Task: inverse folding
């Protein structure tokens, strides 16, 4: 098994949002769009948390 970086896995998880975006286009429901934004915010947070840090450790 290859070792994947957590940042790459986070970015690949965003590919799962393509069907959700397609569903939004078909239904036009606002609640689906809000959940999509929520998932993007969570993925961005994970992407930033798993990145390299150059600062001093606390």
Result:
């Amino acid at each position: 098994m290859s070792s994947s970086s957590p940042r790459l896995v986070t970015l690949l998880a965003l590919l799962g949002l393509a069907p959700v975006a397609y569903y939004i286009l078909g239904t036009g429901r606002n609640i689906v769009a809000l959940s999509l934004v929520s998932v993007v915010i969570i993925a961005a947070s994970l992407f930033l948390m798993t990145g390299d840090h150059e600062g001093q450790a606390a």
The radius of gyration is 15 Å. The chain has a mean pLDDT of 75.
